[in-house]
């Protein structure tokens, strides 16, 4: 059985947002019938560079104001309801994939609370506590 524990941390939340890692992303070019597209291949899905960058800007801006005691969806962390509503469902899914990528590559101080669910929830882990799991026997 797995047990979750909150471990003390002295990390400043803003310092835990790794803009340098985001800047180091190597985008791919995908050729199309009319023109080439630049983006990021996330598993079998291609996400356009402009959407990766917009997602990063929204997520990086919202993390410092997020509570450490609450789970957030990609929509919550995107933190711009008007812009979110203007985007169609496939873009919402792509934004969620971007967030999962940022967390997996440790660019943002978040932990995924339900990594196998389609609608993932994230917890800020770097201000006062860090989420860890331990095996309980």
Strand order of the largest sheet: 2-3-4
The H/E string reads EHEEEHEHHHEEE
**Uncertain spans, ≥5 residues at pLDDT below 50?**
6-10, 127-134
Q: Over the alpha carbons, how many angstroms does the gyration radius reach?
A: 16 Å
For the biggest sheet, the summary is: 3 strands, antiparallel
Number of strands: 8
Walk me through this protein's architecture.
- With 137 residues, the chain is of the alpha+beta class.
- Helix content is 34%, strand content 27%.
- It contains 5 helices and 8 strands.
- The strands form 3 sheets. It has a 3-stranded antiparallel sheet. The chain has a 3-stranded antiparallel sheet with strand order 5-7-6.
- β3 (36-42) and β4 form a beta hairpin.
- α2 crosses α5 (89-104).
- The longest helix is centred in the C-terminal third of the chain and has 16 residues, at 89-104.
- The radius of gyration is 16 Å and the shape is globular.
- Mean pLDDT is 86; it is low at 6-10 and 127-134.
Write the layout of secondary structure elements.
Layout: E1 2-8, H1 19-23, E2 28-31, E3 36-42, E4 45-48, H2 49-62, E5 71-72, H3 74-78, H4 81-86, H5 89-104, E6 110-112, E7 122-124, E8 129-135
Antiparallel strand pairs: 1-8, 2-3, 3-4, 5-7, 6-7
